[in-house]
Design a protein that fits this description.
alpha+beta; four-stranded antiparallel sheet; 1 helix; globular
Length: 68
């Protein structure tokens, strides 16, 4: 990924109004990119399949103990 490439980041409507508490996602070269809005240089890349499995776990409540 070069510095000149434009990445269209998307954040959740549940993020704070001022942009805080945001995890942003984007598609790039067949991968899903993730970053935190307050540290945009740190980008994690994953596949659609791995993100799908994670989101299914979130929806099923498998990670609720981490935020309680």
């Amino acid at each position: 990924m070069s510095a000149s490439e434009v990445i269209n980041w998307q954040k959740s409507s549940f993020s704070g109004g001022g942009g805080e508490n945001c995890v942003e996602l984007a598609q790039h070269d067949g991968n899903i990119l993730m970053r935190e809005s307050d540290e945009p240089e740190a980008i994690v890349a994953t596949s659609r399949e791995k993100l799908r499995a994670f989101l299914m776990g979130v929806k099923a409540g498998e990670f609720d103990h981490l935020i309680e």
